[in-house]
Amino acid sequence: MNSMAELEDELSRPSEPDVEFLRQLEGDILILGATGKMGPSLARLCRRAADAAGPARRILAVSRRLISEPGVDGIACDLLDRAQVAQLPTCPNVLYLAGRKFGSSDNPELTWAMNTVAPANVAEHFRDSRMVVFSTGNVYALRAVAAGGSRETDPPAPVGEYAQSCLGRERIFEYFAHRYGMRCLFFRLNYAVDLRYGVLVDIARKVYAGEAVDLRVPAFNAIWQRDANSYALRALGHCDTPPRILNITGMDTVRVRAAAEFFAARWARPCRFQGEPGPVALLSDASAAAALMGPPEVTTARLMELVADWVGTGGASLNKPTHFEVADGKF
Residue 14 in 3-state DSSP? Predict the structure, then answer.
């Protein structure tokens, strides 16, 4: 990929399993929180998959700021306003992407409101829908790298207010699922990468700029954003009561040092580090999702090649660091 147009096209390219899934799924699809890093490409993927699958259906995208995508019906709504949420059209299939992370330490009350009050407003209104609820691996405890990633059966142990509020979001939807029989799936995502942002991009850009790479969090998981979009769409077929949980990330545990050294070797540049490798990291085991929906199409090795090509040729950046090196939950 050599251009923004090619990147955007690839991020929204539906796979054959996506198209086949929509041949079986009935009804329109509504995306809540559609202007974040993943929302626009997910909306386009849904539109393209629906067009390929037939028959005609609507793809609706809800956000504070209207999304403008061909074939996608944009709706402006503040999810913290219960009256506005009550005016949204009901829809059998809902993808919930809304939430707040960065700035959580400076404005924790807004983080808690976005991650718990908005879900309550949404769950009340869409109680009869099936809903994929985006969450995060941050709800798990940090893990020793040798122990492997957290599994869906591991008890939550969130570190910091952001992670605690994300568990709060899950608990709100869980409450409504039990009260109304609402069908949900908690989509615990770790580090989607789209070449303009993501943990691999953070490391690559530091190496390219000659800056030191932080080793305090020694390892991570990452997944190509198009694969995450594909999983999100097809996860609509696995919503249940009580809510099902799926970890969504790549199949490999990537060492920060090894990733930095890969980029350094690729560009024949020096590689500098700072900090001592810490004892734990945010890691998830995505084998359950792979068994249910197949492994990601793009391997970790291929993803690293894509990032190296993009950063090395001056590709654009969203300038939104992941803060993967944070171990105390203060984002």
Answer: coil
The stretch 15-30 carries a mean pLDDT of 97
- At a CB cut-off of 8 Å and minimum separation 6, what does 121 contact? 79, 80, 81, 82, 85
Strands in 105-174 per DSSP E: 130-136
Region 39-43: what's the mean pLDDT? Answer: 96
pLDDT over threshold 60, residue 104:
no
Average pLDDT along the chain: 95
Question: Does position 315 have pLDDT exceeding 70, yes or no?
Answer: yes
Predicted TM-score (pTM) of the model is: 0.95
pLDDT at residue 331, rounded to an integer: 59
160 contacts 296 by C-beta, under 8 angstroms: no
Instruction: Write the secondary structure of 221-271 as one string of H (helix), E (strand) and C (coil).
Output: CCEEHHHHHHHHHHHHHHCECCCEEEEECCCCCEEHHHHHHHHHHHHCCCC
Which pLDDT score, from 0 to 100, does residue 105 have?
62
Closest residue by Cα to residue 117 from 81, 153, 143, 141: 81
Does residue 329 contact residue 161 with C-beta atoms inside 8 Å?
A: yes
Residue type, position 79, single letter: L
Query: What is the distance between the alpha carbons of residues 96 and 295, in angstroms, rounded to a whole number?
Result: 23
Third-level CATH fold of 4-312: Rossmann fold (3.40.50)
The amino acid sitting at 251 is: M
Q: Could you state, in order of their start, the residue ranges of all structural domains in the chain?
A: 4-312
